[in-house]
Amino acid sequence: MENTVPAPTTPQNLDVALIGGGIMSATLGTLVHELEPEWSIGLFENLDQAGLESSGPWNNAGTGHSALCELNYTPASPDGSVDPTKAIGINEQWQVSRQFYAHMVEKGLIGSPKSFINALPHMSFVIGDGHADYLRTRYEALRSQPLFESIEHTEDLARIAEWAPLVAEGRNPNTRVAASRVAGGTDVDFGSLTRQLTSHLGTAGADLNFGHRVTDLERSGSGWKLTVKNRATGEKREVNARFVFVGAGGGALSLLQASGIPEAKGFGGFPVSGQFLRNTNEATIARHHAKVYGQASVGAPPMSVPHLDTRFVDGKRSLMFGPYAGFSTNFLKTGSLLDLPLSIRAHNILPMLAVGKDNLDLTKYLVKEVLKSRSKKDEALGEYVPNAEAGEWELISAGQRVQVIKKDPKKGGVLQFGTEVITSADGTISGLLGASPGASTAAPIMVEVLRRCFPQRFAGWEPRLTEIIPSHGTALNSNPALLAEVTASTNRVLELA
């Protein structure tokens, strides 16, 4: 019998390739389908399901970051004043995400809002004179802003006990404390939301490839050639795409480096891991209904701000405290310990060394956190829950976060706590690096990706975007009438009223 050579597989051709199955890719894919329903979309995710890494509910705090309670968005200036600008910007972004969710629910494209978003007060709580003075100043700076007009503030321990009993009970009445609260906050299960958006994409015709990892990217004509490996069989194949989005969380940096685009040069990553304490006592869980955020320790990254959170995951209510930061060299929870050393390049080593030199406080903080015993973790819990019973709390691992390191003309390199969109000059590839506020701002960030990458088409898309996001192009904080209208509408659809 004559030996035959198998014919080569014809490469798949796509309009849009999404790398990573998290909230960012799911949001961008959904928006693309809404704007260009005839475009072919392929999604490639290394794990067996969408939303299992950073988007997973136990891998993030699910806050719906809106700057209602997160104090790192309103730092005190050297003169003690508080500038609300960044908080307003974060809240504006969150309003866009809310409207996107409401559109998807109202059109029946995803399930019940209760399956991924629930109303939950957001509260800031601080201890001591200096922190209390700051929180009062912050309250005064925010209360006149339309987006924050419902904020409340008190230093009355009895009032705090009404808002969050576990925080107040057992506390020394002679210690000065302060709290600010916005009743209209939320808790979001981004894992559930991601899976629902991804499922909708599949139903709409997108090619969903789970258990498939993109191992390489290279230019191919006016687009890109992806090398895709089937994790189960080891088989590799090629996929061509006119546009590529790298939404692979901690895995995005290596792929952007592999692409060779000059815009990715100079970027590095600094991984931070974390743990939470999760309460398993139903009676205790039932007595707390809020997200309570405190002040970060000196040298701590913003994602390590201590918080006591009510969570709604898979229809069940839980209670978490943390996070306790740590350090591991893997960029993904399911990644490799070689991720960090393999990310070092000639173009980013100087920024990374500069960041190491300028962030010794962070290094000391992380070492201290890594060495912290369980009893020390319980002590930290006791600062926020004085009557906490340690036996009710189990220690769980949270997701990996890779903070962005980028070139800086003055310092050589800076550590950036936030998100960074990297886009090629020709708009054929874009990727996202960074962490918080992350998932909460996926919708506005993906709209910005569309603006950058499809400038010739974007103007034609705007009427449709305004149908999906009624405030598109308008700052709600400067338009109280539209803010009231949009808030009432999204609250009704998302069952948050």
UniProtKB/TrEMBL annotation:
In terms of Gene3D superfamilies, this protein maps to: FAD/NAD(P)-binding domain
What reactions does this protein catalyze? (S)-malate + a quinone = a quinol + oxaloacetate
Enzyme Commission designation: 1.1.5.4
Q: Which InterPro entries does the protein's record reference?
A: FAD/NAD-bd_sf (IPR036188), MQO (IPR006231)
- Which Pfam family, any one, appears in the UniProt record? Mqo
* Coiled-coil parts of chain: none
State the Gene Ontology terms under molecular function.
L-malate dehydrogenase (quinone) activity
The protein's required cofactors:
FAD
Name of the featured protein: Probable malate:quinone oxidoreductase
Source species taxonomy: Bacteria, Bacillati, Actinomycetota, Actinomycetes, Micrococcales
Q: What gene is behind this protein?
A: mqo
